[in-house]
Design brief:
This protein is of the alpha+beta class. The protein contains 15 helices and 27 strands. β4 and β5 form a beta hairpin.
Length: 536
Amino acid sequence: MKRSVALLGVFAATATLAACGGSDTSSGDPAGPPQPGGTLRYGLSLAPTCSDPAQSQTNQTLYVTRQIVDSLTDQDPATGQIKPWLAQSWEVSPDAKSFTFKLRPNVTFSDGTPFTATSVRQNFDAIVQKITTAKAPVGATYLFGYTGTTVLDPLTARVEFSQPNAQFLQATSTPQLGIQAESTTAKPAEQRCLGDNVGTGPFTYAEYRQGQSAVLAKRAGYAWGSAVFGHQGEAYLDRIEFRVVPESGVRTGSLSSGQLDAVSDVLPQDAPQIEATGARVQVTSNPGIPFGLQPNLTRGVLADAAVRSALLTAIDRKEIVDTVLGPQYKVASSTLASKTPAYTDLSTKLGHDVAATGRILEQAGWVPGGDGIRAEDGTKLSFAVSFTAAFAGNKSILELAQQQLRKAGIDLRLELLSDAEYTARQNSKDYDALYYNFTRADGDILRSTFGLDGRNFNVRGPIPALDEALTAELQAGDTAARAQLIGKAQQLVLEHGLWIPTIELSQAVGVAKPVSDLKFEASARLQFFDAWLHRN
């Protein structure tokens, strides 16, 4: 490989996850040997939005869809290194415009058809030409500048781009670029969400009920697992039953009573109940963009750079973590999460300092009003933030931030939207600010989030220094040089107030005592291939 408060009571951290210590834990009881067989029952906190990995965006959806597809490569969660999977080896051209993959032989899809270089072409073509950015915004971003895939021979595919795309190799490790059979890629986007997707993965869909449940069955004869996996051959579990259980207390009760074997989004106050039964809480931090506010630079008071700068010091991130979340979460200390390769610590620019906030606003003409809210020439310092319940703590986090900003004379209005309305508002740019996070174990997520050729939810115009850094990191073949450019981009995003970071997302999964080796992959999504059940 050449380059190779009552409001906050429900989320209050009344108990700590002492068993986790806030660190990555992923496999649990090592007692073995592993026992094949059995059904693992998993409680999701939100319903999957689509059965298609290419169109998956939420963690809860990806927990399901990741299991049915393999990717060309995998990423080691411990080192960040790219490892072989469906591709045995690869070469990257010096200009990072061409990626040639030597594919593993004797791989088949679950419908019996062979995996070949043509499969790679069909998948990437379908994402760009058929599903498009509208339905697959993540995958389409990874394929930015894609011009096509050349089939050099049945087991050699050359993927080509119109411009350098240094992030692409890592992108091939993601589920959004997971490989599916022609019977799936030939379908339009909507028909790929019905639960009959065909992949090469260690599990297949046995049942899929949109918004309710999914059942996966072990793929017999699977023999081409990732180099990152803990074993080779078939998965240990016979089946995985995913059930949607939105209420955190119900998930915890179901785990404690033995009705479920593992559950998503464990809250700190639920840990004692879980641990009292011999179960445990496994935690890992998400890489990528931490949770934060993304201002629309064309709307109201957020068009003022001074206001955006003042927001950085007006928020008390430590109070949010201590009051709302608990010790398994971290304060955001940059525009990338600390687990992301090329992360740069910018915590000195994000300290809570109400006096500094006041000075910035006073100098810009924002003076306190009679109601405590600042104003300039009759315009109140007020804006709305649009968000969803994709993460259970979002509302409580923003309610506390709302109180903090009010102390600085800033009125923050909260708009909790349904997923459909949120997406529609995003697409039409009809918002003052958005609140979300974006997971990916590569710094190019800055380009897709803040670049003019990315989603550009800031609705910004050119910022030459930032635009140059984001373009250059795509062209950089040298890892150290690319990291330096990504570091520069992090600073510029913060300096221009394009992102107001709050906290880093963590995955906290409750796991029953009989479950071993349920693991997180590099992007903090679950991997069930190595998981097994003690059934004695």
